[in-house]
Amino acid sequence: MVKEKIDEVIEISDLILFVVDGRSELTSLDFEFAEILRKSGKKIILVVNKMEGRIDSEIHLSPFTVLGLGEPFPISAIHKQNITELIEKILSLIPNVEIEKEEKLIKFAFIGRPNSGKSSLVNALIGKYRNIVSEIPGTTRDTVDIIWEFNGKKYMILDTPGLRRPSRIEEELEELSVRKTLNTIKRLDVAIMVIDLSVGIREQEKRILHYIEDKGKSCLIVFNKTDLFPSLKERREFEKIVPSLISPFDYFPFIFTSALTGYNVKKIIPWVDKLYELSHMRIPTSQINVAIQEALSRVSFSKKGKSLKIYYATQVETAPPKIVFFVNEPEIMNKNVQKYFEKFIRNYFSWTGTPIKIEVRKRE
Question: What are phi and psi of 258, to 5 degrees?
Answer without folding.
Answer: -140, 110
